[in-house]
Structures are given as structure tokens and as C-alpha cells.
Amino acid sequence: MDFNKEIDTRGLNCPLPILRAKKALAELDSGQVLKVVATDPGSMRDFAAFSKQTGHGLLESSEANREYFFYLKKK
Questions:
Q1: Catalytic residues
Q2: What predicted TM-score, i.e. pTM, was given to this entire model?
């Protein structure tokens, strides 16, 4: 998937991945896509809730080798 910016939050636990994503999204224009890489297992639930609460689109979330990948589209 194409994205405009990527942040690496591996090794960080809740709420830091969400806070870093929020900051990165603030730097993007509407419609741009942010890729987030995380290792916190709770991030799957956290990013789904974050998307619902903020209105930013969660385009895709996946897991591979204990890493979690999220693609968020700024509203």
C-alpha cells in the first residue's frame, strides 16, 4: 500500500504508539496515509478505537512476526 509517511513505534507500549501517530497525522494533509509499525499487542485494539474516535480512516491493519502494521488515512 502507498503511504506518505511512516513511523516506527516498535518497543513502545500504550499509549505512546497512538500519541506518536496522532502527532504524525497532524503533519499530514487531509487524505494522506500514515504507516505505523508497532510491537505492542494491544495496538490492534488501540488503533481501531483511535480511528473510530478521531474519524481518521483505518485502511488496513495486519500482523506478522509479532509486529503490527497500520495504515491510517487522515480525515
A1: 14
A2: 0.96
